[in-house]
UniProtKB/TrEMBL annotation:
SMART domains: Proteasome_A_N
Name of this protein: Proteasome subunit alpha type
Domain of life: Eukaryota
Quaternary state and interactors: The 26S proteasome consists of a 20S proteasome core and two 19S regulatory subunits.
Nucleus in keyword set: yes
Length: 176
């Protein structure tokens, strides 16, 4: 008797010579070709600026951006219903990044071609993170994604985030 696998027990196995997953690399290239998004965390808030109007603070394939925005909204709603308080941005980032990472593991799905920026207030503290196409996420004082990511990162390195006001960050983001 032979058994037929469903495919769900298989793992993505198309690796580059240096050990990276090709599908994640392709998804990252989609993000790099998208519109530029810059986010700046200040002492009193977070400013997000985008090169063009996009459905969310993200760069990449629009359907993937919309899917991740829906996942984030569903996670926020579920948390609110369950705990009766708004979801902290760090927990939202963790939950969305788990979806992104899970979509890099199985051949029946492909990695998301989007890198969402999640911002919010965690109590009195501003919070800013960016989720990579691999599912890894990092907290930032300033981050950028999209076509002009490198230029924006160079400009972000010049800023003193701890003393920057939201008003000044808005001017800096518009300049970038």
């Amino acid at each position: 008797m032979t058994s037929i696998g469903t495919g769900y027990d298989q793992v993505v196995s198309t690796y580059s010579p240096d050990g990276r997953v090709f599908q994640v690399e392709y998804a990252s290239k989609a993000v790099d070709n998208g519109g530029t998004a810059v986010a700046i965390r200040t002492k009193d808030g977070v400013v997000i600026a985008v090169e063009k109007i996009v459905p969310t603070s993200s760069s990449g394939w629009v359907p993937d951006v919309k899917a991740l925005a829906t996942i984030a909204a569903d996670e926020a709603w579920d948390y609110q219903e369950r705990y009766r308080v708004p979801i902290p941005p760090k927990i939202l980032t963790e939950r969305v990044s788990m979806y992104v990472q899970a979509y890099t593991l199985y051949p029946s799905v492909r990695p998301f071609g989007a890198s969402p920026i999640i911002a919010g207030m965690d109590g009195d503290e501003p919070f800013l993170s960016l989720i990579e196409t691999s599912g890894a996420y990092f907290g930032y004082w300033g981050c950028a994604t999209g076509k002009a990511r490198q230029l924006a990162k160079t400009e972000l390195e010049k800023l003193d985030f701890a003393t920057l006001s939201t008003r000044d960050a808005l001017k800096e983001a518009a300049r970038m």
